[in-house]
Amino acid sequence: MLAYERSEYPHLRTNGPQHGELAANGLPMIGNRLRLATLSDASAYHCRVALRELSRHEILQAVAEYDRLGQDRFLEKYGFGKARSYRLVVDGKTYDSKAIVGAAHGFLPGREPLAAADFSGGAATVGHLLSSLGFQVTQAVPGLTAGKLVVQLSALRPYRSPDGRQALYQPLALLWAVGRAHQGLARMTEWSETETTLGEFLERHGEHPRPNYPVAALYHAGLWDIAGPRPVPPAHGNAPLRWFASNQPASGLPEPVYNLVRYSGEARVAAAAAIVDKYLENVDYDAILSDAGLATAGIADDEVPAGDIIVVRSPLVEEYRRLCGIGAGASDRGARLGRPRVSVDVLRLESARRAVLLRSEGHCESPRCTGEPQDITDAGHPILEVDHIQDLAKGGLDHPEQMIALCPNCHAIKTRGCTRERLRHELFMVAGQRHQAILSR
Ligand SMILES: [Zn+2]
After folding, report:
1. Who contacts 400 (Cβ-Cβ below 8 Å, separation ≥6)?
2. pLDDT grade for 6, boundaries at 50, 70 and 90
């Protein structure tokens, strides 16, 4: 099992070039971890803008080196994982797109190769760059999006007992797995660990400690991956109990689902909210979400994908709508706003923050803004603060219509400026107009 995980995630083992190896430009290379730790803000910024300097010439040089070394040695040299869904096509051969771009940067005069963590491998960066240079890029597997995942999660048919009670095994197992992905734990878990930790999780929330049931049911619903012999028996009866006991299979979320809920904040909150809304209406979902580690600040934040993993973003309008609707069913105004449940408040607040940042398109939303900072954060985001226009204590709500993205200057004016009351009125109008403008796109 360990060997399987290593081959699945080579970047976890060999993050960076081997000791003593020289870069393409002849300079010694420093391991990625060290480079990341010592990157100044300016050079981190540089890495993100550096892609623009690349031409076909450097890409083809990297392709030639890839041909010479072969895939494994090339990826190991530059510290990239295998591209699973997104590949560059040159003369009928396919290449790991992100690794090629990272290596190509080292062929620019005076430049070093970029590490996997220096830039995102998504359609917006690597895909856009390669296509704008006239290359063909393929997506082998159509990317799973948050929207498609929600549809899949909402289609489960949890078991109902003869007295009509809906069993919580499958929703609980999914939240447990999403929480583990969010913590960065490996996708596939040994059966002994699943049996213990998922078993205890089920028991803490009112079900019997028998993880084989939800794991088998979710496998047949396409929402769980199980290693080991086939066929996997149906979920009900005693067959699965015996099958899991004798095979001890590693299992976990299917890879596209895992990657999405691990790295995409949008998908994480959408998945948690869909499961709560659809299956946990009448139970203490507050405690369940907390226990799964899904009720923390930052739950809606994206994380930089490891290796060459592509995380597909939903179209802006679709994502904005979904984030506005957290806990609110189909309407964009929450029927549940004000419901005093802590963890869902966290999901809603974090979703609303993310929605406001999307709506801002990276700029201060104050109509009186006189200038934003030119710098960006370490994560590559503009320096913006998302604020309730009216303080929560004074009746403000965790809803994008009542929140605003401000640069530090405008934020200070809103908090301490003598014109703050007038500004507050203007901000309510602007937030409302911008909110409606997105919804009517
Ligand atoms: Zn401003």
Report:
1. 320, 323, 324, 352, 355, 356, 359, 431, 435
2. very low
* Residue 356 CA to ligand 1 centre (angstroms): 15
323 contacts 299 by C-beta, under 8 angstroms: no
Q: Quick check: 85 pLDDT over 70?
A: no
Instruction: Give the residue-averaged pLDDT of 288-302.
Output: 92
- What is the rounded CA–CA span in Å between residue 385 and residue 407? 6
Boundary-marking domain end, from 348, 363, 378: 363
Q: What is the pLDDT of residue 395?
A: 74
Q: How far is the CA of 373 from the centre of ligand 1 (A)?
A: 9
Shared domain for 309 and 368, answered yes or no, is no
Q: Containing domain of residue 410, as a range?
A: 364-441
pLDDT digits (tens, 9 = 90+) for 319-336: 899 888 864 443 333 444
Distance 408 CA to ligand 1 centre (A): 7
Virtual torsion, Cα 219, 224, 227, 233, nearest 10 deg: -10
- Ligand 1 centre to CA of 371 (Å) is 6
State whether 368 and 440 are in the same domain. Answer: yes
Identify the residue whose tokens are 């929605």: 355
Please say if the pLDDT value at position 438 is more than 50.
Answer: yes
pLDDT in tens, 166-219: 899 999 999 999 999 999 999 999 999 999 999 999 999 999 999 999 999 999
Report d(CA 254, CA 148) in Å as an integer: 14
Q: pLDDT, tens digit, for every residue of 7-65?
A: 333 333 233 333 333 434 434 333 332 233 233 334 444 445 567 788 899 999 999 99
Kindly give the distance from the C-alpha atom of residue 413 to the centroid of ligand 1, in angstroms, as a whole number: 9
The pLDDT value recorded for residue 141 is 54
How is residue 303 written in tokens? 């994380």
Are residues 350 and 387 both part of a single domain?
Answer: no
Say whether both 136 and 183 belong to one domain.
no
> Which pLDDT does position 8 carry in this prediction?
31
Which pLDDT does position 216 carry in this prediction? Answer: 95
Contact 262, 303 (CB under 8 A): yes
Which helix (H) or strand (E) segment is 151 a member of? helix 146-154
Centre of ligand 1 to C-alpha 355, Å, is 18
Domain check: are 94 and 168 in the same one? no
Same domain, 199 and 341: yes
State in Å, rounded, how far the first CA of the chain is from the last one: 49
Burial 416-435 (b: 16+ CB within 10 A, else e): eeeeeeebeeebeebbeebb
Q: What is the Cα–Cα distance from 227 to 233, expressed in whole angstroms?
A: 13
